[in-house]
Amino acid sequence: MKKLRVMMLVHPEMEPLDHLTDRKDPQYLKRETEIDVKRALLKLGHEVLVVKVHDELQPMRTAIEQWQPDIAFNLLEDFAGDGAQDFYVASYLHMAGIPFTGCNPRGMMLARDKALSKKILHYHHIKVPEFRIFPYGKTIKANKLRDLPYPLIVKSNIEQGSVGIAQASYVNNAGELLSRVEQLHDMTRGDAIAEQYINGRELYVGVMGNQRLEVLPIRELSFDEKATQEQRIATYKVKWNDRYRDKIGFKYCFAKGLHNSTRAKIETLAKRIYRKLLLSGYARLDLRMDKGGDVYVLEANPNAAITHDDDLALAAKKAGYKYENLIERLLRLGLQARSA
């Protein structure tokens, strides 16, 4: 691959400062993805220009006009602090004629909205948990709480990274549901979604590609055998606190004990999900497999986390990609998407 001029898009508070070298430093950990990606790009021989973006497109426009990048490496998870607007950045890059890594704008918009993505998948006969949406700012009517398949998991309809998910998100009745929805409305200032709890294994499937898709080895959040049903959820604390995860006996690992036929079924399903939601670049799909072997889609995460020790990067490593090779692969996919 020829050497590229890579415009690396980051949130201002995530700037990969060169003086940070201690991986235990909280400031390093905060920027770990950005540091990992920048180091990999430089190691591959590419030129890198870090561009900080918050609520204005001007920094990107200036960089495009003055530096003329070959491609943008998009590490933005929101625009102006609003996760629902992250696809605007990709839209701008597309209109400006600049190739970029990760998902296209339409796929980002469809996947970001959990309710919308479930409706699309259900239409295509792909299993999703039964759900209800509770719009922010609207009075919750009593009939909205009836005939629901309790227990339910209550979470933000837009936010990613398990934001707003805690043990209290597991609700058994209308009273608990109403209380948690109101808490989540106050916390996120956005819509809440309550979805049927699927009792089973939580699986994570990484997919890379545009037209031709590559499904990476399946990862799993393994629960402690003593954990109760309501404890077996990927809360924010479980996702982001290593010590807490060790304390309760949960761990992220590669899925074990899956028959070859089951793996093949999941891989085929992953490709269908990816295509039906118009995804491109790379994504991580969050699934639940119940005790009967039925697989349900919880959500799709385009532009999933790619720190060296995140699920997607570890799965890519098992598939034969060194970290630098993974970053190179994402660049190639970005360039191919533009030329397609």
Features:
Dna Ligase, domain 1, 21% strand, four-stranded antiparallel beta sheet, D-amino Acid Aminotransferase, Chain A, domain 1, globular
Straight-line N-to-C gap:
18 Å
Fourth-tier CATH superfamily name of the largest domain: ATP-grasp fold, B domain
Q: Extract low-pLDDT stretches.
A: none
Helical proportion, percent range: 25-40%
- Roughly what fraction of the amino acids lie in strands? 15-25%
The main sheet comes to:
6 strands, antiparallel
How many distinct helices?
12
User: So, CATH architecture of the largest domain?
Assistant: 2-Layer Sandwich
Structural class: alpha+beta
The averaged pLDDT comes out at 94
Tally of individual domains = 3
- Any idea of the CATH topology of the largest domain? D-amino Acid Aminotransferase, Chain A, domain 1
Tell me the radius of gyration: 20 Å
Q: How many beta-strand runs?
A: 13
Protein architecture, described:
- By secondary structure, the protein is an alpha+beta fold.
- The protein is built from 12 helices and 13 strands.
- The chain has 3 domains: 5-100; 128-196, 2-Layer Sandwich (Dna Ligase, domain 1); 199-218 and 255-339, 2-Layer Sandwich (D-amino Acid Aminotransferase, Chain A, domain 1), CATH 3.30.470.20.
- Helices cover 37% and strands 21% of the residues.
- The strands form 3 sheets. Strands 8, 9, 10, 11, 12 and 13 form a 6-stranded antiparallel β-sheet that branches.
- Strand 12 (281-290) and strand 13 form a beta hairpin.
- Helix 2 (32-43) crosses helix 12 (323-339) and helix 4 runs antiparallel to helix 5.
- The longest helix has 17 residues, at 260-276.
- The chain is globular, with a radius of gyration of 20 Å.
- The protein starts with a strand and ends with a helix.
- The relative contact order is 0.14.
- The model has no long low-confidence stretch (mean pLDDT 94).
